[in-house]
From TrEMBL:
Residues 5-171 form the Bacterial bifunctional deaminase-reductase C-terminal domain. PANTHER family: 2,5-DIAMINO-6-RIBOSYLAMINO-4(3H)-PYRIMIDINONE 5'-PHOSPHATE REDUCTASE (PTHR38011:SF11), DIHYDROFOLATE REDUCTASE FAMILY PROTEIN (AFU_ORTHOLOGUE AFUA_8G06820) (PTHR38011). Transmembrane segments: none annotated. InterPro entries: DHFR-like_dom_sf (IPR024072), RibDG_C (IPR002734), Riboflavin_Biosynth_HTPR (IPR050765). It comes from Haloarcula onubensis. Pfam families: RibD_C. This is Dihydrofolate reductase family protein.
Length: 179
């Protein structure tokens, strides 16, 4: 059983979570086909452990563009200063700082999924509020884009917990943050 705050995110092999235009369309060819039984990226197993989700405004907009809200009634907190309509009653908008809301998240939810994006992940790293990282390296080199790690955080140690390879070429590293 997972607990704490987990950054579970996909990145190109060269470290980008989106291309130069902010698009994640390059991920489509690596997603599980709806009619396949196999959970290629291990997503379904991970999602079963999640109590709530947090994401930034750009990630929220991308998720909305996919059509039906994919996270059901799981509580979702969107960090933003913009005005949005909630996709479901489970979506709440947060304009406070990460340091101000994390204690509440930790108190009410056992396992929080930090969905993205890169700016919000940096904020969580700066506050030392990520407990584990599940980083899926997608076998593509984008050459440019939005980097996951910008170096705007203190050095943090990682212990490798597990590595999983998939037939699609995706390699997932599961780390525990040690400090």
């Amino acid at each position: 059983m997972s607990s704490g705050i987990t950054l579970y995110i996909a990145t190109s092999v060269d470290g980008y979570v989106a291309d130069a235009d902010g698009s994640v369309d390059w991920l489509e060819e690596f997603q599980t086909e709806p009619d396949r039984e196999e959970d290629v990226e291990g997503y379904a197993e991970f999602f079963e452990t999640v109590d709530c989700l947090v994401m930034g405004a750009t990630t929220y907009e991308q998720v909305l563009s996919w059509g039906e809200w994919p996270y059901g009634d799981r509580p979702t907190y969107v960090f933003t200063h913009r005005n949005f309509s909630p996709a479901t009653e489970a979506v709440q908008f947060v304009s406070r700082e990460v340091a101000d809301i994390v204690p509440e998240l930790r108190q009410q939810d056992t396992h929080v999924w930090l969905v993205g994006g890169a700016d919000l992940a940096q904020s969580f790293f700066q506050e030392h509020e990520i407990d584990s990282i599940r980083l899926s390296f997608i076998p593509i080199l984008l050459g440019d884009g939005i980097p996951l790690f910008s170096g705007e955080h203190d050095e943090q140690g990682l212990d490798l917990i597990d590595t999983t390879t998939f037939d699609s070429g995706i390699v997932e590293h599961h780390y525990e943050v040690t400090n």
